[in-house]
Amino acid sequence: MRMLVTGGAGFIGSNFIRYMMGREDIAHIVNLDKLTYAGNPDNVREWEGNPRYTFIRGDIAERKLVSHLMKAYKIDTVVNFAAESHVDRSIARPEVFVETNVLGTQSLLDAARAHGVAKFVQVSTDEVYGSLGREGYFTETTPLAPNSPYSASKAGSDLLVRAYHETYGMNVNITRCSNNYGPYQFPEKLIPLMITKALANEPLPVYGDGLNVRDWLHVEDHAAAVELVVRSGRPGEVYNIGGHNEQTNLEIVRLILAELGKPESLIRHVADRLGHDRRYAIDPAKITAELGWTPRYTFAVGIRETIRWYLANETWWRRIESGEYQAAEEDRIYG
Ligand code: NAD
Ligand code: DAU
Q1: H helices within the chain, ranges in order?
Q2: Model-level pTM?
Q3: Ligand 1 lined by 192 (C-beta under 6 Å)
């Protein structure tokens, strides 16, 4: 397999590449990443010089570049992780979300079609389904009802991917995963933010009443699911990915504080996120029945390992916190 992985210097993309580099039938992985504030060369340094791996700094929306890469590296499989991924940033500045998530995906689809790519996997999110009440789960037939500019841009790209299957017969899949946690997650997202703040004895900002529910999955279980979809997903199908692990934000924050031996007095309830989705929960029955996927991590083990990873890799997140190149990138993108 000759794979183009986009956004491979980010959290999930870099974990996916790590997972796939161990597979003997992966002849080459080209990692195309713009290195926005969230893209970190430290995440992918271990493959520098590896003949099966090439890093290209560039934008998925650059049509000529994307087309050139697919041709030059004889790409047969595209896995699109590249995205602006943080909801709060999308509320502050929506435009780059449309540029990357919608136009970028279309640029990739056009190039993949032109070069006869055999499989195109769009890594999407459960947030495209909107918000649940106390009961029920998102299935693949739940109507799309995105509530943030981020999730609306992801829903837009999903619809383009779907349309390229219906119109041009492209072999596509869309995956919709719940919240990921694990190593290399940028410390703007709930779990790494709370770990790093607790370690610094800083207040932990919990939005609203803290009772919003997310369905947490270890990033390696997500990588395993994406691999199965790449290899065996039925053309045109959507696969939801989640491990039935619902937790309120307060439960997560209290667990982190307890693990680190820090007091709950660090918790600060702050103003709620605009349009804050109340509950996400995935029904993974389809990917389990069709592709045999089940998560390997229990949350109890995964979260402890993750906390230990942040403790052992303080240099990694300190470099981000003080990182001059990230600040420069952010300035360039957000003005
Ligand atoms: P991330 O923000 O950690 O990484 C995104 C990566 O994409 C970065 O390396 C960034 O530099 C790169 N990128 C951004 N714009 C680009 C562009 N125009 N061209 C090329 N590269 C670009 O995100 P993540 O959490 O790893 O999420 C990866 C994908 O998985 C996203 O598509 C996201 O929507 C989806 N997803 C995330 C979660 C989650 O919990 N984090 C859950 C489900 C789905
Ligand atoms: O469900 C999948 C999605 O999960 C992905 O598509 C997104 O890319 C990813 O960012 C994530 O979105 P969320 O908005 O759910 O994740 P976030 O970590 O930003 O927030 C998780 C919950 O914690 C949410 O209810 C908001 C809350 N929160 C978050 C932050 C950053 C806080 O209470 N305080 C905070 O400081």
Answers
A1: 11-21, 63-72, 87-92, 95-97, 105-114, 149-168, 190-199, 219-232, 249-260, 285-291, 299-312, 314-322, 324-334
A2: 0.97
A3: no
Query: What distance in angstroms lies between residue 93's CA and the mean position of ligand 2's atoms?
Result: 16
Answer whether 138 contacts ligand 1 (Cβ < 6 A): no
Catalytic residues: 126-127, 150
- Write the DSSP symbol of residue 104: I
- Widest CA span in the chain: 57
Distance (Å, whole) CA 278 – CA 274: 11
Of all ligands present, the nearest one to the C-alpha of 210 is 2
Tokens for 284, please give them.
Answer: 């993974």
The CATH homologous superfamily to which domain 2-184+216-243+276-297 belongs is NAD(P)-binding Rossmann-like Domain (3.40.50.720)
12 CA: nearest ligand 1 atom = 26
Query: pLDDT (tens digit, 0 to 9) for every residue of the chain, 335 residues total?
Result: 999 999 999 999 999 999 999 999 999 999 999 999 999 999 999 999 999 999 999 999 999 999 999 999 999 999 999 999 999 999 999 999 999 999 999 999 999 999 999 999 999 999 999 999 999 999 999 999 999 999 999 999 999 999 999 999 999 999 999 999 999 999 999 999 999 999 999 999 999 999 999 999 999 999 999 999 999 999 999 999 999 999 999 999 999 999 999 999 999 999 999 999 999 999 999 999 999 999 999 999 999 999 999 999 999 999 998 865 455 455 545 54
261 alpha carbon to ligand 1 midpoint, in Å? Answer: 32
**Rounded to an integer, what distance in angstroms lies between the CA atom of residue 221 and that of residue 90?**
26
Atom of ligand 1 nearest to the CA of 35: 11
Half-sphere exposure of 221 (CA within 13 A, CB side): 28
- Count of positions (residues) in the chain: 335
Domain boundaries defined on the chain: 2-184+216-243+276-297
CA of 103 to the centre of ligand 1 (A): 15
Do 154 and 83 form a contact (C-beta atoms < 8 A)? yes
